[in-house]
Amino acid sequence: MSNTLTTQNESRPDGGHYSVLVVGGGQAGLSISYFLQQANIDHLVFEKHTVTHTWRSQRWDAFCLVTPNWQCALPGHPYSGSDPHGFMKKDEIVAYLDGFIAKVDAPVLEHTAVQRVKRAADGRYSVSTSQGEFTADHVVVASGGYHTPIVPRMAERLPAHIVQLQSSEYRNPQALPDGAVLVVGSGQSGAQIAEDLHLAGKKVYLAVGEAPRCARFYRGRDVVDWLADMRYYEMPVEQHPLREGVRDNTNHYVTGRDGGRDIDLRRFAAEGMELYGRLDDLQAGALQFAPNLQVNLDDADDTYNRINLSIDRFIEKSGIDAPPGAPYEPVWRPDGERTALDLAASGIASIVWCIGFTPDFNWLDVPVFSGRGYPAHTRGVTPLSGLYFVGLPWLHTWGSGRFSGVARDAQFIVDAIRAACAQPVASVETMAA
Asked: What is the pLDDT along the chain (433 residues), one digit of tens a residue?
């Protein structure tokens, strides 16, 4: 099989052979296209919906970035607005992405689902899609790691009159029926959606999970600015204390809303939000919760203070003149653990499930996955020649799944593709031998 790369502008029929096929038209897939075009490598991007679909259809109305705008650094398209230390709202994020889409002008087949990817005996990849069959020398999986919403089976036993939404379906408080709302999960989405409902005057019950939290501002600056100076965002996964285990961590909850602030669940509780521990079951008309609210709140605060302490040490070591700081002290503590809540008496009319997503790579018929369903790779390069991943959380650094780090990852992958194209392609039989 030839490894000669044809030019980007050469006309190619649908269903033909490409040097590279990219699965996913979000920021990761478009970043790959950006660098492939710079390298004059022919390719095609498949997108199941429309490019950057998730940002447009799976975010609530009040959604905004939780990292400052200056961290938006897609390839060739850095943030150029007037508020680098602000936090873009949903419509501003979409406008930023629209500018990137226009700049990249990627060759994309939208509304095209990839159904199966296999590696043939000659080393090529066969890619079956809803628009036909394709082949490629290289396949880049850029579909992210958040595919299937997690909703527990106990949801099936809830009364039919209770409206149930997954976090990707939530839009605003006005779209929910009158009555109280149960938010399940306190990661970034859960904490921010609970706040959105609380600010709208809704009665909110929140099942608090094990998500950590961090300060928005500390000692005169955004915590993200401090961590950037401390080079935390440059740390590769293999140097992180948790190593690959960090990929399983829940994101810290904080918000960029109204210019940015902490999210303090204890303060919400003091203002009338009702906090419980982890939701476990439904029995005899009562929701059952684990008795772990106090430990979950304490652990989140410990993380908050630990991050701030690391900033204190950096300031001292660097001799920086900064305003004084102090540890967070709880503004509210639960008066014991409540492990049951009568569903009817609570007035709960809707539930928003905010307990995350699971990856779904069942369409990838390739031997690169661990027993936990995660692909084996080093900076996105898998052990299987010609197969790559990009856009996964902590693929290489903290920013790998974000606007801040995907450009570096995409450049690395395209460099690997260029290097591979200079070598003979190994057939499956050769690899087995």
From this structure: 333 333 333 434 457 999 999 999 999 999 999 999 999 999 999 999 999 999 998 899 999 999 999 999 999 999 999 999 999 999 999 999 999 999 999 999 999 999 999 999 899 999 999 999 999 999 999 998 777 888 999 999 999 999 999 999 999 999 999 999 999 999 999 999 999 999 999 999 999 999 999 999 999 999 999 999 999 988 887 877 766 665 667 789 999 999 999 999 999 999 999 999 999 999 999 999 999 999 999 999 999 999 999 999 999 999 999 999 999 999 999 999 999 999 999 999 999 999 988 888 999 999 998 877 789 889 999 999 999 999 988 787 877 888 899 999 999 999 999 998 876 544 444 433 3
- Nearest Cα residue to 25 out of 124, 129, 164: 129
- pTM score of the predicted model: 0.91
Q: Can you point out the beta strands (E) in 254-299?
A: 274-276, 279-283, 286-289
- Say if residues 29 and 140 touch (Cβ distance below 8 Å): yes
Taken in order of first residue, the domains within the chain and their CATH numbers are 17-147+359-432 (3.50.50.60), 149-353 (3.50.50.60)
d(CA 284, CA 368): 45
